[in-house]
Task: structure prediction
Amino acid sequence: EQFYVPETPEEMIYSFGMAAGSYIKDSVERYRRGKKPEETFQQRLCKGHFIWKWNTTFPHIYSSMIDAYLEQKIPYYFLKRAYEPLKVSIETGDHIYIWVVNDTRDLVKGTVIAKIFDVGANQFTDSFAFPVSVQPGESVALGTLDMLGQMTRDKIIYAELVDEKDEIVARSHQYLDIERHIIFPDVWLKMWQENNELCICSDQFARCVELKGLEDKDSYWWDFSDNYFDLFPGEVKKIQITGKHEKGNIRAKSFYSSKDIECIYRKQ
Result:
């Protein structure tokens, strides 16, 4: 019920995949936080997370991570992002809490910058910075965004963790409303290759950018380091490519865009 009513098979697959992926994201992040915000000084209780349906047989299209052709599905990439050892997590409810979950072996220090993004205005409208110091194996609720005042539910909360070397080491974003209540722009993407990486950017917010190989006889088994991801304006997303393909045409398209773009990739 969170998505627009599908009218084509492609839209149906998108709705099923995004519903499963969104559920996985919210569930895994909640488990990994391991406590309520008001319990931030208490012991973290997290006993892990188990995926019971890794793959499935044809013609199932829902809930598994890998399809019958051994291709990664939409939930696979949601799960991969949710399992990142160092995680910025945004919890929404009566208040908006910003968390950092540190499942690395190192003390994490830096700053989390939380921002409000207005999709219609295509810009960040406000921000707040939290100092960060999180021990290995700990999760910490840094605070709320109450200081930014009231906001309408069509906004997106974005947060990034900047380390002491001024590098972004973790990032996340969270919607305040369900998808079918949000109008996404018809965007133009740009894509190019630098060394062995694909670089993708957009001048507007791009919902669910899909990368796909376009080889007529062998379009399977392009192993992208990320896929089905959102892009904020001005952000450059860098994708590593592994797998059996040495070269080929790759298409990038935001789900709500009528335009796509192609790039000829050659492994260097």
Notes: The two ends are 45 Å apart (CA to CA). Residues 9-33 form the longest helix (25 residues). Residues 156 and 175 are 5 Å apart (CA to CA). The longest strand covers residues 123-134.
